[in-house]
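Q: Fold this one first, please.
A: Sequence and structure below.
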Amino acid sequence: MYFRRATFLQRKSTILNCHIKPLSRGINPPFTKKDLQQKMKICGVPNLRTCLVTLQEKGVKVGDHVYETKGYFRKTGRYGIDDEWNTLPVCGAKNISYKVFRHVNKNIGYQTLTKRELQKCTKEQNRIYKIVTKWKRYVKKRGAKMSFKLTAKQQTLLEEVHTLHLKHAKQHESLFKKIIRA
């Protein structure tokens, strides 16, 4: 019988996202058909299966979180909200990389560019930055948010949940290995 450690590790990230998601419920107003139409207009795409970066109807599943659900926490102390307000239609091949502007050492998912930095960008980067910025403005105008911050007590409790999960995942893995050897 074959055992893949990676399967257990992949689940860890999924479960951590599941711990964070309910904490952001109720923060944002409902996402309407009008909001969907505005998203497609801002992104310059005919539907949400078309990638705003490549402009091809290929490889877009749920899209990309503009503000990563966990990815920016260490830098900002905030978690991204997992809803339509915080996603844009981006194919898997461009996911994350389209937001990283290495030449100015910035990630437009959570950072803004100065005029000088914007002048150093390619035409394509300018187009993408304009889309992301317009969407962020629209989200704010509608009273929605892309990220949230936990209280100190909530953060401590969430860390306890993560620790317990890791402990139980290791026990689970150990028991599963015994089943395979039996």
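Q: Good. Now the second chain.
A: Here it is, same layout.
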Amino acid sequence: MAKKLNKHTEIKDFQNYWREDKPWGIQFKIATSEKTYVIDCKWKDRVRLPDGRVISNVLARKVKNG
């Protein structure tokens, strides 16, 4: 089971962040002076196509099968 975060999390020694689009959603990386936190925001019923467009799983199956 994934670790649950509070609605508010304070990172006191924030230095930088990155956002990366993934096939399953979006990944955020937050760098501090000691470590990097990774947050995976996953969609339940969507996927990202190779061209970057986001569609529902049902439509993705139709596109894949022609």
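Q: Anything worth noting on the second one?
A: The chain has a mean pLDDT of 85.
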